Amino acid sequence: MEKKVLVLNLDHTPIAVVNVQKAMVLTLLEKVSVLADYPFLSIRTIDREFSYPAVVRLDEYKNVPYRGVLLTRSNLFKRDDNECQYCGSPKHLTVDHVIPRSKGGKSSWTNLITACHRCNVLKGDKTPEEVGMLMRKKPFKPTLAYFLAEYAERNAEEWIPFLSAKAVQPG
Ligand SMILES: [Zn+2]
């Protein structure tokens, strides 16, 4: 399976995830430095063998506008670990407005939560307090790093040291 490559800015802020071909081009053009490789993997061309990069850092600072995480159904489910935030069921997931739209509730990260169909119907047009339902966690606005950390835990543990603020090194 092909592995993804994490791209850091010169100040070590994660800015993108690219495929390995793109990372190799950046490396060969000397635009990036490789900070970590995937062990036991390599890239072979006809006459050479390269190590397989996991994390690369731009050699020149790039001004990147802050990109939040897009509010979509699948990103919302991902934030909520694909579980109903009332009963924990992973089945028949729907999007619930914590404060119902009829009561002025907005479609925002902090007012939307993952609920199974059953809990959504049970809650109806009320707030959780009104029906005595408890949320497992308060809905929050996730950052790009939050999503990358989740991806890294499952697919690319080599990234983990670079996703924590403490990993920022001078230079
Ligand atoms: Zn439920």
TrEMBL record:
Q: Which domain of life is it from?
A: Bacteria
Report the GO molecular function annotations. endonuclease activity; nucleic acid binding; zinc ion binding
Q: Which SMART domains match?
A: HNHc
Domain HNH nuclease: start-end pairs: 71-121
Tell me which CDD domains the record gives. Answer: HNHc
Q: Does the keyword Hydrolase apply?
A: yes
Q: Which UniProt keywords apply?
A: Endonuclease, Hydrolase, Nuclease
Q: Which InterPro entries does the UniProt entry name for this protein?
A: HNH, HNH_nuc, NA-targeting_endonuclease
Q: Which PANTHER family match?
A: OS07G0170200 PROTEIN, SLL1193 PROTEIN
Report the protein name in the record. Answer: Restriction endonuclease
